[in-house]
C-alpha cells in the first residue's frame, strides 16, 4: 500500500473524493479516532493511565473525542476539555455516554491545569491542519499550560525522529511522565510550510491520517515531532491512486520491491563493478567509507581510484582488503587533470562510478572533474621548444563515456564553480546528485536557509531542470526524479548527522547502480537503507550520540536483512 505526502488542499480534496466514493466524513472520523486510541492502547496500560483530551472545533476535535470514547471503553481514565466546541455535539455526547468527563476549557482553566498536572497523556486535537493565523487568547493559554507541565515533567530531548506505520517496527520509548499525542499534526504547525507558532507544544507522537502533510517534513516543524505514525482511515486505494499528492513516502514495502535480485549462479561480475574516485591529503578516509558502503550494498567488485598516498593510508584497513586500487596522478595529494589519461582505459570496465568523496577543492582538482564529466577539455601546457621549432599546447584525451554516476561532495562543488551552464552538457537521467543543504545552495545560487525552507519544491524543480536524480540530504531526505516524481525518506535521526555518513550514502547508491537499478530507484533504496541503518544503530546503542560513519556502513547488511523482515519476505 503506497503512502503519499499531501499539501493541506490535496488532503481536503482526497477526503472529498473519498466521501463522494461512499466513504463518508463520519466514517473517516470514526477510523481516525479509533487509530489514535489503538496506538495509545498499544503503548500504555489502560488501568494505570489518565488521559486528557483537548478538543477544538471541526473535524480534528471530533477525531479527538472519538478517541476519547474508544479509550474510555478500553478502561482508560479520560477527561475532555472543549475549546470553541459545544458540549452537546454528537461526538461529545457519545464520549460522555462511555464515561468521559467533559468540561468547557474556556470557563475553567484552573480545572484544566489540575487535570494536566495529574495526566499521563495529553491528546492535542485542537486545530490539526486548520491553522491560518497566530495563536492567541484562550487557545494560547491552554497550550501554555501544557507547555509548562511538559517542561516540568521532562525536557523534550533529541531522540531519533522516525516515521512509523501504525504497527511500529521499532519500539517507541516513553521515558517521561507526561506524553503529548497530536492528532494529525500538532497545533501551531503550518501543514504546508512547516512554520511553527511559539505556542506549539512538541509532540512525543503524532498520528497523522492517510499520509504525512508536507509541512511535517520541513524545518522547524520536523523538530517538534519525535515519532510520526501514519494511520489508515479507510480511504479506498483507488481514490488515493487517482488523487494528486506532492510526494510519495518510501515505505519498507516500497523499498523491498527495489532490492536487486541475487542469482544463485551469480559471480562478482554479475553483481556489478564500482569505481570510486576521490580522496586527498586532507580527506583520505572519505573514499574508503564510500567503498565500505558499496561492498555492503552487494556489489561484486569495488575499486578505489585515489592518489597513491591515500591508497597507502587506506589499503591496510580490514574493511577495504576486498577492494582493488587504481593509482591516479596527483600533486601533493590533490588529483590532477592528468588522471584522465589513466581513467580513459579503465572506466569502460565499470558498471557505476562514484565521483567526489574527499576530492578537495583545489583548482586543478576542479579542472579534473570538469574534464571527466566532459564539461571542458583539459589543455596540457607544453614547453616552448628551441629556436624555430615550437611545441604547442595539446588537448588531453577526450573524456571517457561514464557509466551511471553518483556526483557527491567536492564534485558537486566543482559543478557549482563551473562558469557556464553544466546541466545541458550531461547526458540526461544518468547521474545521481547528492547535495547537503550547503552544497545545494551553492549549486542553485541561493542561501542555505532558502534551501531548508523549500526543500521539496526546490529538489523537484532542479531535478527537472537538470534532468538528473537529486538527493537533497537532511532530515526526511528528498529524492527527486527528472520526470517530476518525488519521494521522501521516512527517517530523520541525529545518528546520521556526523562526518562521513554522506560518503557512506554515495557509495551505497553507487553499489546499487552497479547492480542494475535505475538512478531514481537506486537513490530511493539507498536513502532508505542508510536511514534504516542509522535507526537500527540508535536502537542498538539506546542513544543517537557517538555513532561513527564506519558503523553506519557496517550496519547496512543488518538494514538489508531488517528490510526483508519488515516487508514480510
Automatic annotation (TrEMBL):
InterPro entries to which the protein is assigned, alphabetical: Carbohydrate_kinase_pred_CS, CARKD, Nnr, Ribokinase-like, YjeF_N_dom, YjeF_N_dom_sf
Annotated cofactor note: Binds 1 potassium ion per subunit.
Sites where the protein binds (6S)-NADPHX: 59-63, 128-134, 184, 286, 358, 436, 503
Annotated CDD domains: YXKO-related
YjeF C-terminal domain mapped to chain residues: 251-563
Lyase recorded as keyword: yes
Keyword Isomerase in annotation: yes
Entry's EC annotation: 4.2.1.136, 5.1.99.6
GO biological process, one term: nicotinamide nucleotide metabolic process
Cofactor(s) in the UniProt record: Mg(2+); K(+)
Record key words, sorted: ATP-binding, Isomerase, Lyase, Metal-binding, Multifunctional enzyme, NAD, NADP, Nucleotide-binding, Potassium
Reactions it catalyzes: (6R)-NADPHX = (6S)-NADPHX; (6S)-NADHX + ADP = AMP + phosphate + NADH + H(+); (6R)-NADHX = (6S)-NADHX; (6S)-NADPHX + ADP = AMP + phosphate + NADPH + H(+)
Binding site for AMP: 473-477, 502
Any one Gene Ontology molecular-function term assigned to this protein's record: ATP binding
Binding-site residues, K(+): 60, 124, 187
Domain YjeF N-terminal residues, every copy: 11-241
PANTHER family cross-referenced by the UniProt entry: ATP-DEPENDENT (S)-NAD(P)H-HYDRATE DEHYDRATASE, ATP-DEPENDENT (S)-NAD(P)H-HYDRATE DEHYDRATASE FAMILY MEMBER
UniProt record similarity statement: Belongs to the NnrD/CARKD family.
Subunit and interaction comment: Homotetramer.
Job of this protein: Catalyzes the dehydration of the S-form of NAD(P)HX at the expense of ADP, which is converted to AMP. Together with NAD(P)HX epimerase, which catalyzes the epimerization of the S- and R-forms, the enzyme allows the repair of both epimers of NAD(P)HX, a damaged form of NAD(P)H that is a result of enzymatic or heat-dependent hydration. Catalyzes the epimerization of the S- and R-forms of NAD(P)HX, a damaged form of NAD(P)H that is a result of enzymatic or heat-dependent hydration. This is a prerequisite for the S-specific NAD(P)H-hydrate dehydratase to allow the repair of both epimers of NAD(P)HX.
Name of the protein in question: Bifunctional NAD(P)H-hydrate repair enzyme
Species per Swiss-Prot/TrEMBL record: Ardenticatena maritima
Amino acid at each position: 500500500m503506497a503512502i503519499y505526502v499531501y499539501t493541506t488542499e490535496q488532503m481536503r480534496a482526497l477526503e472529498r473524493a473519498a466521501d463522494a466514493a461512499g466513504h463518508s466524513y463520519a466514517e473517516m472520523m470514526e477510523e481516525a479516532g479509533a487509530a489514535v486510541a489503538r496506538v495509545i492502547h498499544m503503548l500504555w496500560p489502560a488501568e494505570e493511565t489518565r488521559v486528557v483530551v483537548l478538543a477544538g472545533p471541526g473535524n480534528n476535535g471530533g477525531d479527538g473525542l472519538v478517541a476519547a470514547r474508544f479509550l474510555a471503553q478500553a478502561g482508560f481514565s479520560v477527561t475532555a476539555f472543549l475549546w470553541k466546541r459545544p458540549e452537546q455535539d454528537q461526538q461529545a455526547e457519545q464520549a460522555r455516554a462511555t464515561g468521559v468527563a467533559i468540561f468547557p476549557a474556556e470557563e475553567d482553566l484552573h480545572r484544566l491545569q489540575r487535570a494536566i498536572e495529574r495526566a499521563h497523556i495529553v491528546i492535542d486535537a485542537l486545530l490539526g491542519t486548520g491553522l491560518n493565523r497566530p495563536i492567541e487568547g484562550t487557545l494560547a493559554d491552554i497550550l501554555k499550560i501544557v507547555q509548562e507541565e511538559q517542561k516540568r515533567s521532562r525536557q523534550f530531548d533529541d531522540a531519533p525522529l522516525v516515521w512509523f506505520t501504525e504497527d511500529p517496527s521499532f519500539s517507541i520509548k516513553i521515558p517521561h511522565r507526561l506524553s503529548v499525542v497530536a492528532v494529525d499534526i500538532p497545533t501551531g504547525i503550518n501543514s504546508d510550510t512547516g512554520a511553527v507558532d511559539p505556542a506549539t507544544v512538541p509532540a512525543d507522537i503524532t498520528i497523522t491520517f492517510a499520509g504525512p502533510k508536507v509541512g511535517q517534513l520541513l524545518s522547524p516543524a520536523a523538530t517538534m515531532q519525535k515519532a510520526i505514525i501514519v494511520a489508515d482511515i479507510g480511504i479506498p486505494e483507488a481514490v488515493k491512486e487517482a488523487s494528486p499528492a506532492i510526494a510519495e513516502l518510501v515505505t519498507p514495502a516500497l523499498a523491498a520491491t527495489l532490492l536487486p535480485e541475487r542469482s544463485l549462479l551469480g559471480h562478482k561480475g554479475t553483481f556489478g563493478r564500482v569505481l570510486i574516485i576521490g580522496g586527498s591529503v586532507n580527506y583520505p578516509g572519505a573514499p574508503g567509507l564510500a567503498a565500505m558502503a558499496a561492498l555492503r550494498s552487494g556489489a561484486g567488485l569495488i575499486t578505489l581510484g585515489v592518489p597513491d598516498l591515500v591508497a597507502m593510508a587506506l589499503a591496510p584497513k580490514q574493511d577495504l582488503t576486498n577492494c582493488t586500487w587504481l593509482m591516479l596522478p596527483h600533486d601533493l595529494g590533490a588529483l590532477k587533470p592528468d588522471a584522465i589519461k589513466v581513467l580513459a582505459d579503465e572506466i569502460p570496465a565499470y558498471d557505476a562510478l562514484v565521483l567526489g568523496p574527499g576530492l578537495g577543492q583545489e583548482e586543478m582538482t576542479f579542472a579534473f572533474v570538469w574534464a571527466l564529466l566532459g564539461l571542458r577539455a583539459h589543455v596540457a601546457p607544453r614547453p616552448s621548444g628551441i629556436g624555430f621549432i615550437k611545441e604547442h599546447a595539446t588537448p588531453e584525451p577526450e573524456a571517457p563515456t561514464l557509466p551511471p554516476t553518483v556526483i557527491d561532495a567536492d564534485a558537486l562543488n566543482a559543478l557549482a564553480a563551473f562558469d557556464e551552464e553544466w546541466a545541458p552538457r550531461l547526458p540526461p537521467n544518468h547521474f545521481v546528485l547528492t547535495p547537503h543543504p550547503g552544497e545545494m545552495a551553492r549549486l542553485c545560487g541561493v542561501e542555505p536557509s532558502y534551501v531548508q525552507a523549500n526543500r521539496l519544491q526546490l529538489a523537484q524543480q532542479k531535478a527537472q531542470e537538470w534532468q538528473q536524480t537529486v538527493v537533497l540530504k537532511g532530515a526526511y531526505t528528498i529524492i527527486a526524479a527528472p520526470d517530476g516524481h518525488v519521494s521522501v525518506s521516512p527517517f530523520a535521526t541525529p545518528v546520521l548527522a556526523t562526518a562521513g555518513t554522506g560518503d557512506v550514502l554515495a557509495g551505497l547508491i553507487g553499489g546499487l547502480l552497479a547492480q542494475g537499478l535505475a538512478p531514481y530507484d537506486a537513490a530511493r533504496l539507498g536513502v532508505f537503507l542508510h536511514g534504516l541503518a542509522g535507526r537500527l544503530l540508535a536502537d542498538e546503542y539506546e542513544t543517537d550520540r557517538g555513532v561513527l560513519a564506519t558503523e553506519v556502513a557496517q550496519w547496512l547488511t543488518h538494514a538489508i536483512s531488517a528490510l526483508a523482515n519488515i516487508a514480510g519476505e
